[in-house]
Amino acid sequence: xxxxxxKRRWLTIWAITASAALVTIPAGAAPGGKGSPFGARALAQxxxxxxxxxxxxxxxxxxxxxxxxxxxEIAEGADQYxxxxxxxxIVAPGxxxxxxxxxxxxxxxxxxxxxxxxxxxxxxxxxxxxxxSNSSGGSGDVTGRMAAIAADDDGYVYxxxxxxxxxxxxxxxxxxKPISDKLPSQSTGALALDGAGRLWLGTGEATTNxxxxxxxxxxxxxxxxxxTFSARSRVGGDELESTTIHELRFGGGKVWAATSKGVWSHSxxxxxxxxxxxxxxxxxxxxxxxxxxxxxxxxxxxxNDIAIDPKDPSKVILAVGWRSGDDYNGFYTxxxxxxxxxxxxxxxxxxxxxxxxxxxxxxRSADGSRYYAIDQSPEQLxxxxxxxxEGIYSAASPFGPWTKIAGYKQLAADGSALTSSGxxxxxxxxxxxxxxxxxxxxxxxxxxxxxxxxxxxxxxxxSTVGPYWNFNFSxxxxxxxxxxxxxxxxxxxxxxxxxxxxxxxxxxxxVGNDGGVYKRPVNGSQDASGHATDWTSLxxxxxxxxxxxxxxxxxxxxxxxxxxxxxxxxNGQSVLRSNDTVMGSNFGGxxxxxxxxxxxxCNIAEEYVYLSIQVTQNCGxxxxxxxxxASKATSYNVAxxxxxxxxxxxxxxxxxxxxxxxTWVAGGRHIWVQTHGYAIRSGSEWKSVYxxxxxxxxxxxxxxxxxxxxxxxxxxxxxxxxxxISVGNADGTGWHxxxxxxxxxxxxxxxxxFAIDPKNADHVFLAVNGFSRHWTEGPGAGVGHVFESxxxxxxxxxxSKNLPDVPTNSAIVLPNGGLAVATDLGVVxxxxxxxxxxxxxSLPAVAVLxxxxxxxxRTLYAATHGRGIYTVRARDLR
Length: 878
Hints:
The chain is mostly beta strands and about 900 residues long. About 5% of the residues lie in helices and about 35% in strands.
């Protein structure tokens, strides 16, 4: 199916590394391989009769079938965000912590950042129902990915985001305040309240997806109602730096942590002293071990959860294993001699063999009478295109015997939106999991996968109370007078965190997912299909954890001021007009790079993935009439040919010529140029001006006055990583490769961005990602992150000086000749005529992926991957 008709939701896959913040390593190097590819729904089929896929499930209470869930091969692309930070080798633990310390010691510029996206973002905004939009799906107000949730009975809710820190609400959700901005890691793995009411935070997101970051340890907040986390509140020493933390569990006066470096414990009574390593299946692969530098080391000690018997806290079950499979995967407990031993029998329906134990989540009832578990199977992940879910299970004891109470086919038939072959419940069970039990009813359970499921009878029957979306249900309509036709609002898809708490005496379940935080009454209402009628989005704009890849700014000709847009992880493309009190979404799925006409902010080119580019000249405004009249569509697929051949990066580079906004350059295997600007209507209008070569793909492009710079990699992972720069003209003449030997001035690392001096196209700056050789074990890792050329890229000079050793993502030359650089920990600046770097403002430890100037040339915009879009006045940077 053509890219222009695909439903634009993509699910970022993964991988883990020993890098101190980013979770990744090339999937092909991991045990078990890449896992499953994932599909996308065809929006163009919404008005048509849907033909049921072979092997699909017929929902019990829906009249329509879903079509278009073809398997698109995105597994490789999902690794690429991480490859940029780890290639050509493995990054040692501690790299990001050292960089953050160095960054905070830099002198500061003048000026302060202002958040421009701290207002509601309505994914169902009825203004934007064009062909590539997800509006009317039912998710409502959204924000960035939430990895963990905690709640108490006093109305306090705590939401831990993937890259934007921890937030607190004291009103049962909404009116949020950040409470972890002073920490060196804003990535959440786990949140938990202990019996004394203290809030425990495990940093380092454990979803093993492409843009997850490792953490700096575990922190505790004694007064979570009023206090904020500080570096002084860290528990223990540095034992859990550079890990992910999947769960924190309590028992026997100890807190247990399931991490990417095994299972650890610490006293809850005294917070000093080192963490104790309870169990690591392969300790030689841990930092300091004899195999610590082995490429597979990051996969060898992954722990997912801990089940503790409250009647006898010495009885503990460990769920250990890499989601794609390894020999050590399984359940472990202590034998009579105190040694951890794999459980091989007596578990009933719950598998114990390594092939079928992957990512696991436990939950138990408040009275200890029932235990529940979700198990993702490496074998299913590798062989079953429909689902990686082995099942959901129940037992009277964590030691079993366990009884299977749900499989993916049963869940698909119980009101699910995922009923087509290739995309059914649990297809991402390695990424999406939560489980909790109603404190007042041991048989009342909420389970989260891609959707939210509920059982009130211990698993005999299930309801999909939070379907993936409403598109394939008979109640759905694209009618702009309604949010989602006659369907009730649902949650955003891809569930990660859950908690049950009370507010004003009423109990609510809170769920965290790729779209933020939602709640409903614990004993809420359902319609005839089993879908909840009472979900409320808590993403009211006071919580901004949006994960931007890009930003674009142009004049708002209709209202004055400017229009700000940007591409997001799993939340499409946001559009903020100058008179808006609510942002809208005009494109769906993962939003990549963005071009916006400075003279007209409604002229927008938005990249989906792999150079799948859509263009609109009216901001994507549409009432949905394209459903019955295709000529009413106002956005167009204009992808160059490398999209169809998959010869482009997952987030591929796209740029406009600094001197001509109608000349665009895009990079895949080829360097593509088109000169029709936003009037382009077909991918055939692109011209290939240079072939980088088989196996190579562009990582950055820039152009000024017809001169084009292109950086590339190939191979792009740490298995033979290579990189280079090619230079030529937009008309196809003069193209040549620059000589960049591995032992030369420019390191053999990922080349992530160019900044051309607007006054001289031969004067150009280069941003280099990854870490220098002090941290990176790989050939030619070299040193430095920012390089300058005054001869059109022929020779380069390292100008990093006092710049911290931190991955850099992009750069921009300001009107005064100063240079601003976006890094994984904020923005730095070098004033004209100076050699030293300064820190711009005081953003939290959040990745900034792109910088753009507003059309007035006086305002700098920063796309952060976890805290929205910020601005600062360029003239204040001095």
